[in-house]
Amino acid sequence: VRDPDRKREALDLAEFTRRQPWWRKLFGPESGPSAEKYSAATQLAVGGVTGWCTGLVFRKVGKLAATALGGGFFLLQLASHTGYIRVDWQRLEKDVKKAKAQLKIHRGRQMPTEVGSKAEEALSFVKKNVPVAAGFLGGFLLGLAS
């Protein structure tokens, strides 16, 4: 049985995470610059709103790109069937084989250092700003769905 007159204590998430060793082990000693400045609710809200806007833009641009690509393919097929365009199938096959050979050569190589450093930078940002990143991901998915 709970006492209704008992005062409830508010939990300061920034202070809580600062005192927890598991947080530092999981997200590293550099985690939390925004957690020290803003509340978790503010970070989630900012991340959610920016994620939702980004998801909405991605959805609109994606529809536009799909329509343009599909329309262009349709027009090329129509032009090919009516005789306006002739396809040199032997040359196309030769070029495809050449591209396959290039892909086999590059398959064994390591990822370029620029890509690796950008991935590490993004991972570091997410570790430092977990609430913002979580809010952004949720908002992004909602923006894509709406």
UniProtKB/TrEMBL annotation:
GO terms for cellular component: mitochondrial outer membrane; nucleus. It is a multi-pass membrane protein. It holds the Pfam family FUN14. It comes from the Eukaryota. Keywords: Membrane, Mitochondrion, Mitochondrion outer membrane, Nucleus, Phosphoprotein, Transcription, Transcription regulation, Transmembrane, Transmembrane helix. InterPro entries: FUN14. Its main location: mitochondrion. It is found in: Mitochondrion outer membrane; Nucleus. The keyword Cytoplasm does not apply. Belongs to the FUN14 family. This is FUN14 domain-containing protein 2. It comes from Rattus norvegicus (Rat). The lineage of its organism: Eukaryota, Metazoa, Chordata, Craniata, Vertebrata. The gene is Fundc2.
